[in-house]
Amino acid sequence: MPEFVDLPFETEPVEPDALCLPNARRFAHAVQEPAFVDLYQARKATRSAEDQEIVVFEVDVERPQQVYHPVKHRERLAAIFGSDQDSMPEVLALRADFPLVPHLNLRSYEKPRSLCLYDQDPRDVMLHWTPLAFVQRIRHWLALTARGKLHAQDQPLEPLLQPALGSIILTRKVFDRLFDTNEHLPIVARRLTEDKASEMIAHAEVATDAEQDNPEFVALRFMCRTVTHGIIKRQPATLQELCALVQDFGLDLLAELRSSLQSLAHKSLSETFADAKPIIILGLPKARNKAAEPEDVELWAFMLPSTLAQTGIELDVWEITNGQIGTLLWVDHIRHGENVAVCPLKVLQSFTRAQAATLSASQADEREMVLIGAGALGAEVMDNLLRAGIGRWSIIDPDRLLPHNLARHTLGGHFLGQNKAEMLCFLANELIDGETSCTCIPADVLCPGEYAEQLESALNQAEAIIDASASVSLARHLALDIQADAPRASMFFTPSGNACVVLAEDAHRQVPLDILEMQYYRIVGHLEELKGHFEVQGQGFRYSQSCRDLTSKVPQDTVSLHASLCANALKQIFAGDESFAGVWTLTSPHHTVSFTPIPPSQLVEITHHTWRIRTDTWFMAKLADLRSQKLPNETGGVVIGSHDMKRGIIYLVDTLPSPADSTEWPTVYIRGKNGLSSALHDLETKTLGNLTYVGEWHSHPEQVPASPSPEDREAFDWLEREMQATGLPPVMVIVGDNDTQVFVESMQMGHC
Question: Can you tell me the distance from the alpha carbon of 674 to that of 660, in angstroms, rounded to the nearest whole number?
Fold first, then answer.
């Protein structure tokens, strides 16, 4: 016959109908009905601080003939119910030799063992709790334990202890140095919670001379040998019990503690730490079974409520005479920590880049990145990426935080008047422990002044340059004037906030940012679903008296949505080396998001006189295709594009269909004008004037080169006279069999 242990508190038997707690009464009646469970006894606590009622029952266990853990065919258990209806009943295995298995709750007593049945919040469990479902959960737990299947092979190793009092956060520097040396490593800690009656949370760092100024805590660390997970029998309550527990793990903690305290005394640190409370940190390499290699090092921490001075006395290390600590050289150790309580703490590692990446399901990325523009979008995108472990950042922005910025910025009111880049840099470096994640340059990229050398260095060292300034001139400057090797990306949201855009170069910059910009305008002009892309509803908000003191009305939730979309896009861009362009459009009132990809097309460039003509393979292919469709006749139309007069660049972006009243013969093309004016006006409106008329194009017949004919020269003279009124250069494109020629200001040839 099996032997059984008593409950860990005094009880008395009662009739099941005498149970007062609703769940206890329901459970006692329920276990009397099914064949696989029997009621054994009902009891009540007699001297408990709270009302507790117990139902003792026996269940049949479905187990194999060959068991992994010695679970019996029939087990006697006790369900303990409390008066709190949100509190899940605890289940104790009453058999005296019930095995020590994974997934047991640690208690101050070793037996009876407490079954850990759920990994959910007890309040969530009790929402759906029924007596019979609870019995089946217990039987399932016992059956899997018998098979050795309760703890899956891909499941993380079970914690060895279950902390209760509070937490201690160890910095990366502490983690890196904690067990890599035999030399004593004092650690100081500061309390993060002001209310000492609440759960304690402390932050620990390696002690320096400057920091050793009467700290509240001092931590001492020790290493055990490898142990198997889930084998701790009971939670230690005193230092003596803790020492006995780790004795089985190859650590003579009592001797090590005495040695450490003597070391502190020899280094004259004992009085510095005299009033500090010791925190013992233990490292336990943890394996899945006895034959396995360690998979993890579990850290335990125990705070001693007594001070360091008191602890030294309790361990016969020193005595205090006239307020001075003096070590004992010859002494019989009669005290072993039996009077020193230990309070377990949860050990946490401070937030590192690796942890950020793991928690974000991403890969840590330490590339040097430059962010230009620390406004609402740029600040939040960088924050999103940094919290995913991505990037070492240089933030460039001359602006200061003003009151109206608080409507949509990650910075708070206490940063008003400060430079945005500097404050974001401060917060970034506070976020990631153990490294400098961010530097800042409070400069205007287009006019850096005293910061010119620092700016040049940051851009040259960058591995990615991200423009969040929402400035066309700055984006153009990045694309064309900065000689750094890093690919560029640009992100912005439209003035109305109804859409955001990301344009990103490929790793080899074959599709540069200015060409992506033109391709973006082209698709906005083409697609009906992007109609109204640049429209602004209502008036802007004037935050001061200057004519430029005007900002858009876009709520923070919209900016946050755009920031998450842009950050996600940048993650994918950083993971590859291809160019990317796309538009995300929000549909009111529920912020439904639709994505419009912009297929990147490679740069095509020629120089003609003093002008640079920049276009792409898409445009060249479109002209060739239109020519092919109309052969043997000639065809043509207007060229849509843009001018950068500052740099002498003409962008050839698109063409409108040949008007219906055009003359298209095998050797003659005369462009008509029906509908052309309204079509051009519509395109200019859709693209906010970023695309407009820049010239004409026509095709030549088969086997006729793209060289200008006398009629072409006459047409070019007309075009030149027409463009004189605008001050813009005339452009004519001729498409032949195997080549395309572009003419600007004269009929001297330039080949694409």
Answer: 6
Tokens 């922005």 correspond to 397
Q: CB of 582 within 8 A of CB of 570?
A: no
Query: What are the strands of the beta sheet with 365-372, ordered from one edge?
Result: 438-441, 390-396, 365-372, 464-467, 488-493, 499-504, 580-587, 592-597
Which residue carries 């005479």 as its tokens? 321
* Residue 458 CB burial class (10 angstroms; 0-12, 13-18, ≥19): buried
Report the DSSP pairing between strands 200-206 and 296-303: unpaired
311 and 295 assigned to the same domain:
yes
* Mean pLDDT of each 10-residue bin along the chain, 752 residues long: 89 93 94 93 83 94 89 95 89 93 79 88 89 95 88 48 68 74 63 64 64 71 73 73 84 88 74 82 76 73 88 84 68 78 86 90 92 96 95 96 92 94 94 85 96 96 96 95 95 92 96 97 94 76 46 86 96 93 90 94 90 96 96 96 95 95 93 94 94 96 91 90 88 92 74 46
Q: Are residues 481 and 514 in the same domain?
A: yes
Cross-strand partners of 394: 370, 439
The answer on 324 and 205 residing in a single domain is yes
Question: How many C-beta neighbours within 10 Å does residue 516 have?
Answer: 29
**84 shares its domain with 194:** no
660 and 698 belong to one structural domain:
yes
Point out the domain boundary residue: 350, 376, 401: 350
pTM: 0.80
Counted domains in the chain: 4
Six-digit token pair at 574?
A: 């950083």
Residue 493 domain-assigned (yes or no): yes
Q: What is the pLDDT of residue 86?
A: 82
Predicted pLDDT of residue 384: 96
d(CA 650, CA 329): 90
* 437 lies in the same domain as 317: no
Question: At 115, which helix (H) or strand (E)?
Answer: strand 113-115
- Burial letters 122-160, b for 16+ CB under 10 A, else e: eeebbeebebeebbebbbebbbbbbbeebbeeeeebbeb
Nearest CA among 670, 655, 682 for reference residue 740: 655
Residue 220 burial (C-beta neighbours within 10 Å; 0-12, 13-18, 19+): buried
* 103: containing domain: 11-147
Residue 126 lies in a domain: yes
In this structure, the number of other CB atoms found within 10 A of the CB of residue 506 comes to: 18
**The pairing of beta strand 277-287 with beta strand 217-223:** parallel
Distance CA 418, CA 121 (A): 44
H helix runs in 16-159, sequence order: 22-30, 122-127, 131-147
Q: Looking at residue 277, what is its pLDDT?
A: 86
| CB neighbour list of residue 131: distance below 8 Å, 6 or more residues apart | 23, 26, 27, 29, 30, 31
DSSP reduced 3-state for 650: strand
In a domain, 3, yes or no: no
C-alpha span between 108 and 85 (Å, rounded): 24
Check residue 221 and report its DSSP letter.
Answer: E
Residues 592 and 621 in one domain: no
Same domain flag for 458 and 582: yes
Print burial letters for 409-430: b (CB count within 10 Å at least 16), e (below 16): bbbeeebeeebbbbbbbebbbe
